[in-house]
Amino acid sequence: MKRFFLGIDQGTTGSTALLIDEHWDVVATKNVEHSQIYPHPGWVEHDPMEIWGAIQSAIAAVLREVGAEPHQIVSIGIDNQGETCMVWDKRTGRPVYNALVWQDRRTAEYADELNEKYGEMITQKTGLGPDAYFSATKIKWILDNVEGVRDQIKAGNIMAGTLDSWLIWKFTGGAAFITDTSTASRTMMLDLKKGEWDDELLNIYNIPKEILPKVTNSSEVYGYTTEETFFGVKVPVAACITDALAAMLAQGCLDKGDIKTTYGTGCFMYTNLGHEVVYSKGGLITVSSWRVNDEITYAFDGGVYIAGAAIQWLRDKLRLIWNSAETESIAGSITDTGGLYFVPAFSGLAAPHWDQYARGMMIGITGGTTREHIVRATLESIAFQVYDNAQVMSQDSGYQFSVMKADGGPVVNKFLMQFQADILGTPVEVPVVTEMTAYGAAFLAALAVGEFDRIEDVRSCWKLANRYEPKMSKDEREYRLEQWHRAVERAKAWERPNR
């Protein structure tokens, strides 16, 4: 009987199921999108029940595609969005409010207050700078603004956490209420060195510790699916990790100084720091990459809020394109952007700028600006943001990287990957499996059930698809970057608090 491994990537715009065979080749993949809810400007929400349905649909689709039966699944690994969080009633499993997405900015002013009063302490404890990006301010908002929730906490009926906690709780029929250090380190509530919730911070935020999940390993059998949650069979749920960090693992970035970027709705770059907490002076955050066998590995994190989401914006809002795939040929049909630069700061700017009040901007528009220029400038903006993070990563870590590993849906765009190599001045390598987030989660689950002996075995699964060598001259690269940075400065501090 054939055996399969299942990786689930619960992402920002959709959920992907990845089915992997015993040779660790991907045999089926299915993505099911879910709605993006925008109640007010700067607010972004998801319906967790819709996400649960999307995951079930994606799993059913990959099983059906290869004719596999649910009992052939050896293990399930789940990766998640990271900071996106929710609060739910443990009696019903239903959310008391929609999930607040990592892009949501409704708590920006509260984050500013925290920064003023406790900024240095929060950074020293958590590796993060106070920002609405992280989960703590979002959970507090739900507790403070949804009627009756704090009363239900007193009655012992409320649970809160990032989406991984809820999904694993759902899959196991309420038997497992956990999160791992990689996800917990993105909440602004975790003592990074201890790998535990920090009581002092929880008191400041007024978030009761008893409603939060247990923080544990990224690779461990947490529990088993129930017959109701997984097509009539019990399968071990054995991995929990943040999406881009799952991809870092799958890329084999296990040594200090290894660097990779995951391109998706946002864009996330990581440099492996080993087992030591290092703080950035240049605006990066420090997180846990994973915890295996109770040993925590750390990384620098450079986040870009808007990457693939900008391409979706071209499609869904401006209607300049029919689908994401055509941006490659459109961008390649012209030699440059005609001087147009696009800063996609729809929800502010993340690392290394950390400006909650920056907003999107196009500059350099002339009477000759065309649809093609806008599409190309959008793709280039992704690469420019990655460059900014890469430079700070090298400076603050002390490591010079010789290659950038890349993964995620947008890496199939050859124009983007070539421009990325050109702007970095460094080769970019893309693996055969572009959905490395779910792949990494599946590997960690397989490791937990004994399919692999050690974490380093993941390197034997990695296969190269394309390598992009830089072709742009140094002078042109420097000019393009200078113009980009001029544009970024003009986009900063546009939104005014209390207006």
How many strands appear in the DSSP assignment?
23
Biggest beta sheet attributes: 7 strands, mixed
- CATH fold annotation of the domain at 4-244: Nucleotidyltransferase, domain 5
Rg of Cα set = 21 Å
Order of strands across the main sheet: 17-18-16-15-21-22-23
Output the CATH class name of the domain at 4-244: Alpha Beta
What is the CATH homologous superfamily assignment of the domain at 4-244? ATPase, nucleotide binding domain
Structural class: alpha+beta
Helix proportion range: 25-40%
What distance lies between the first and last C-alpha atoms, to the nearest angstrom?
63 Å
Average pLDDT value?
95
- Overall outline: globular
Percent range for β-strand residues: 15-25%
As residue ranges, the low-confidence spans are none
CATH-scheme architecture of the domain at 4-244: 2-Layer Sandwich
Determine the number of helices (DSSP H or I, runs of at least 4 residues): 14
What does this structure look like?
With 499 residues, the protein is of the alpha+beta class. It has a domain of 241 residues: Nucleotidyltransferase, domain 5 (2-Layer Sandwich), CATH 3.30.420. It is built from 14 helices and 23 strands. The chain has a seven-stranded mixed β-sheet with strand order 17-18-16-15-21-22-23. Strands 3-2-1-5-14-13 form a six-stranded mixed β-sheet, with helices on both faces. Helix 8 crosses helix 13. The radius of gyration is 21 Å and the shape is globular.
Give me some keywords for this one.
33% helix, globular, 7-stranded mixed β-sheet, Nucleotidyltransferase, domain 5, alpha+beta, 499 residues, 6-stranded mixed β-sheet, 14 helices
